[in-house]
Amino acid sequence: MKLFCLPYAGGSANLYAAWRRRFQAGITCVPIELAGRGIRRRLSFYEGMNEAAEDVIEQLMSHAADGEPYALFGHSMGGMIAYEAAHLVHERRLPPPQLVIFSGRPAPHVVRSDADIHGQPDAEFMKRIEEMGATSAELFADSQLRAIFLPVLRADFRLVETYEYIPRLPLPYPFLVVAGTTERWSEEELEGWRLHTSAACRVMRLEGGHFYWNGNPEPITSLLMEELQQLRLHANIGWEGG
User: Model pTM greater than 0.85?
Assistant: First the structure.
């Protein structure tokens, strides 16, 4: 069983480096690198969510060519990309995920209440990013690091803020929805994911805020390990998500 992981805004595949050591017994963590960062930093940033989903699908299918079952995990922006990618998988009748995990992200039909910030001047943009807790002031204080990460953050926030939800039939894949206990998203906004699958959907809270797994990934990796082991060992029985 492979677990493909998509990062949040401003993040890269390196976010999940520590996860690789935490999975065992047939579960392999495969971080997906998005365009414009890491080893793919020379590639242009995505112009829209569909382009991001297309790129992710290409990477998924290259890794899944061996026929091994897989699951898809996305945190925040990564969850939005995962949702669109899952629809492409279904529409094109590609090998389906055994489970899709949406972390720190409300259902896609939930209307954004935040003002757009991706087009604001650097000083105001960085201030808003720091207020969200998405990064530290030390990162922006370093001119070299700022030159690397600021364009990535701005491009990712543009991707999120220009996303337009398109109503479609529910996906036939089971969902697991995870958020922090002090996350801003309400129960109603998280439970809304049930409208987007015709299979099982489970909603859970783990201790912490929006970035609940930063600094201590053990609760989420243990949860995912348990869920994926059940899928791997009892594939013929089916996943019981409640």
Answer: yes
Contact of 146 with 140, CB cutoff 8 Å: yes
CATH placement of domain 2-111+164-233: 3.40.50.1820
What's the CA gap between 205 and 194, in Å, rounded? 16
**Cβ distance 53 to 79 under 8 Å?**
no
Burial profile 95-122: b = 16 or more Cβ within 10 angstroms, e = fewer: eebbbbbbbbbbbbebeeeeeebbeeee
Mean pLDDT, the chain cut into blocks of 10 residues (242 residues total)? 95 92 87 96 96 97 85 97 98 96 97 88 88 71 85 95 96 98 95 98 96 91 93 57 40
Task: Indicate the domain borders of the chain.
Answer: 2-111+164-233
Collapsing DSSP states into helix, strand and coil, what is residue 13? helix
Angle subtended at Cα 140 by Cα 32 and Cα 133, rounded to the nearest 5 degrees? 65
